[in-house]
Each structure stands twice: as C-alpha cells, then as structure tokens.
Amino acid sequence: MTQNTEPHAIQGAPSYIELGVEDADRARAFYGALFGWRMNGAAGPGQASTGGLNIGIHDHDPSSLLEVFFTVHDLDSAIAKVAELGGRIVGDIHAESAEFGRWVECDDDQGVRFGLRQPAG
C-alpha cells in the first residue's frame, strides 16, 4: 500500500511517518527484522512500506525521532491555527512536490514535534 496522496484525504488523519536516525542502515536492519517492513533501495536513506503508512528513513539526525505527519486540506490555514493554539512552526515550509505535496514541521504547545502535510494536487 502506498501513502495517501489523494486531494480528498481525510483531514487530520496520519498520512506519513518520518524516522530520523543517526544511521539509516541500522534502522533498516532493526525495523525490517522487527516488523518485516519492505525497504526500497539496497541501503541508506529511503522509504519503508508497512502495509499501512509509508515511513521515510533519513540519517545523520541527532534527534532520533519518529515524526507523524497529519493530512490537512489547507496548509496555510493549519499553520495559522498551530500558532493560535500556542504551537510553533519549526523550519521552512517546503514547496509542493509531486510525490508528497507541501509540508512543514511543527511543535505543539508542549514542544511535541509533528508534521502537517497538504497532499499534492
């Protein structure tokens, strides 16, 4: 199953997970063996198919985190709402890509990291 990139995706539904680790190959080995995830490519950063949400794996990330991205229909409105509720935007708003759409990382009002993603189209 592939990630849901449909414009009619459910608002607020988890739609992607990003796994940031120091060593992508170690993460591939660990999670592949633990859960049977199918990995794309032979090594390094990439993506794992879980049969549900896809999980992007990137390396050289000292924060070592699993970050859930939530689908929104209007990224700009969602960003404004995050600020209104006491959260904050972390980093840049990323331009739309054909595969992933527009996205941004956020912290909630307690500092918990999550992402917002407006699917392409």
TrEMBL record:
Pfam families: Ble-like_N
Highest taxon listed in the record's lineage: Bacteria
SUPFAM superfamilies on file: Glyoxalase/Bleomycin resistance protein/Dihydroxybiphenyl dioxygenase
Segments forming domain VOC: 13-119
Classification via Gene3D superfamilies: 2,3-Dihydroxybiphenyl 1,2-Dioxygenase, domain 1 (3.10.180.10)
PANTHER family for the chain: GB|AAF24581.1, GLYOXALASE-RELATED
Protein name, per record: VOC domain-containing protein
Organism in which the protein naturally occurs: Allobranchiibius huperziae
Classification lineage: Bacteria, Bacillati, Actinomycetota, Actinomycetes, Micrococcales
